[in-house]
Give the backbone structure.
Amino acid sequence: MALGLSVIFGMLRIVNFAHGVMFMLGAFVAYYGAQLVHLPFYAALIVAPVVVGLFGLLIEVVFLRRLYGLDPLYGLLFTFALVLIVEDVMRAAAGALGSPYSPPDALAGATNIGFTLFPTYRLFVIGVAIVVCVVVWYVLERTPVGARVRAATEAPVLVRALGIDTQRLISLTFAVGVALAALAGVLAAPNQNVEPTMGDKIIINTFAIVVIGGLGSIGGSILTGFALGLLQTVGAVIFPAFNDTLIFLLMIIVLLIRPSGLFGSPASAK
């Protein structure tokens, strides 16, 4: 979630409040795919990001494209309105109670990792998250495509003068960021009920992670996401009453000391 949001903000400077909705839609695509056409879980890891990514591409082409160059507040208001609309549509279509989504039998149970038993499915999620983070970082930082995307967002006029279609790159970047949120939704679905508001709480924590890591810092979002996940897990054991507030206390401390975030540049905080 944090990686997708950081890609969208870092590359496009769009505060995508609807990122949690894309997370929820990814889970619903996997759930209804399994119910209606018996879509396997492993196939859903590919199908759901593609479907939701295409939906995000439609949103960008039809609506968000008109807001580029305006005050970022317009983008924030639009994506917030999109949250309300999509959640109400899904609530009317699927109900508000939610439905369970089971992982494959091969990922059920627990695995002995030497010093303890750990849920097999959670090990799978950790492995997938690490692979996806490494791939996205490598593409953006070490390939010609990533160089073009960064250039198109930082100096679009110069890049257009070189004959590169900057709008296509921007649309592709937004779609990829949305697809990452959908992938997170599929991975999270077996651990919670699939319901219309499942993205509301996680989007708040995701924004906190991106802010702490540094707005626009891909590596910062990756490292901070894993670190704060561990922090909240330990906090649930040691300080259960303050577990939900630990991440926000840390965010306040980081912003007081370093407003640009732990790994962000001072320019990104402006």
Remarks:
- The chain is about 70% helix and 0% strand.
- The chain has a mean pLDDT of 86.
- The chain has one domain: 2-195.
- Residues 30 and 43 are 9 Å apart (CA to CA).
